[in-house]
Amino acid sequence: MTLYDHLGELRRRIILVGSVFLAAMIIGLIIAPRVIEYLQNIPAAEDFPMNVFSLTDPVMLYMNFAFVIGLILVFPLLLHQLWAFVAPGLLENERKATLSYIPIATFLFFGGLAFAYFILFPNVLRFLSSLTERLGLTEQYGVNDYFSFLFQLTLPFGLLFQLPVVVMFLTRLGMITPAWLRKVRKYAYFVLLVVAGFITPPEIVSHLMVTVPLLLLYEISIIISRSTYKKVLKAEQQRMEEWALEEQKRRQEEIDKQNNG
Predict the structure, then answer these.
(1) In which region does residue 92 sit, left (phi positive, over 0), alpha (psi from -120 to 50) or beta (all else)?
(2) Alpha carbon 168 to its chain's center
(3) In 10 A of CB 67, how many CB atoms?
(4) What is the DSSP letter of 53?
(5) What does the alpha-carbon distance between residue 157 and residue 213 come to, in Å, rounded to a whole number?
(6) Integer Cα distance of 146 and 141 in angstroms
(7) Model pTM?
(8) Alpha-carbon dihedral of residues 67, 68, 74, 76, nearest 10 degrees?
(9) 10 Å Cβ neighbour count for 113?
(10) How far apart are CA 250 and CA 56, in angstroms?
(11) Which of 80, 133, 171, 201 is the most buried (most CB within 10 A)?
């Protein structure tokens, strides 16, 4: 395929994902009120007085939830279309292997959301609320501020939990190795610290609650890369042995032909 053909295919896949995303946003508009009501009544939010400070706050909240719900619903399709775009450039065994990454990546995405929502978010809220109480301040939050903070914590974790899958994929393609991941560990740690700083509020406890899981995730990625790299080397050795046997067989056939001749 020419570069123009590749761009055309990419355009078609982007249009497909965009169309499904719009349909998913419509679903989001339908179920957003129930989701908002549920999140307002969870134990972590019951003690938070949420207010509307602008006439456009309800509309912004409604559209933000529709967007997030649409993004979550379209995520598996996005992964499949990404795989379908790069699949023609892979070998048959690589296509089958990378296709299996889609359910794993989807599971990790929802696992990251669940971790951030059920573990990280309540603890951060509890800490911030206790800090506000110790300072003798009165809590008065806008509903958009509350849910924006919720999205700021949960959605990045859904994406960051894709790190093991990305590492596994790049290792299988031979682009990275576990030795390289160990070599750049200190730089990776620094990047993850910066990412955690963008996600969390500017205080050390929340920052540590985000940073520690990210560092553990990186170490898990190294272990996964090591396992994947061993499989890649084993497959490569097997291919070399098969090639050597075929080459030996071909030479033997040529010798037999010469002897028969």
Answers:
(1) alpha
(2) 13
(3) 17
(4) -
(5) 10
(6) 7
(7) 0.76
(8) 170
(9) 19
(10) 76
(11) 171
Residue located via tokens 């990404």:
82
Rounded Cα–Cα distance for residues 171 and 43 (Å):
42
Beta strands in the chain (DSSP E): 50-51, 141-142
Handedness of CA 244, 246, 252, 255 (dihedral sign): negative
Res. 184 pLDDT band, cuts 50 70 90: very high
How does pLDDT run across 130-182, given as a tens digit for each residue? Answer: 877 787 777 777 788 888 888 888 888 888 888 888 888 788 777 888 899 99
Residue type, 156: P
Residue 132 in contact with residue 54, Cβ under 8 Å? Answer: no
The upper half-sphere exposure of residue 238, i.e. CA atoms within 13 Å in the direction of its Cβ, equals: 6
Dist CA 104 CA 93 (whole Å): 18
Write out the two tokens for 219.
């170490």
Instruction: Report residue 49 CA to chain centroid gap.
Output: 33
Alpha helices in 116-203 (DSSP H): 121-134, 143-160, 163-172, 178-183, 185-199
Query: In the numeric block, which tokens belong to residue 154?
Result: 């949960």
List, as own/partner pairs, every contact residues 111-117 make where C-beta atoms lie below 8 angstroms and the sequence separation is at least 24, other chains included.
111/161, 112/154, 112/157, 112/158, 112/159, 112/160, 112/161, 112/162, 113/72, 113/154, 113/155, 113/157, 113/158, 115/157, 115/161, 115/213, 116/153, 116/154, 116/156, 116/157, 116/158, 117/150, 117/154
CA gap 232, 177 in Å, rounded: 10
Q: How many CA within 13 A on the CB side of residue 145?
A: 13
CA 249 vs CA 56, 243, 255: distances in Å: 76, 10, 10
Q: What is the mean pLDDT of the chain?
A: 82
The pair of structure tokens assigned to 245 is 């046997």
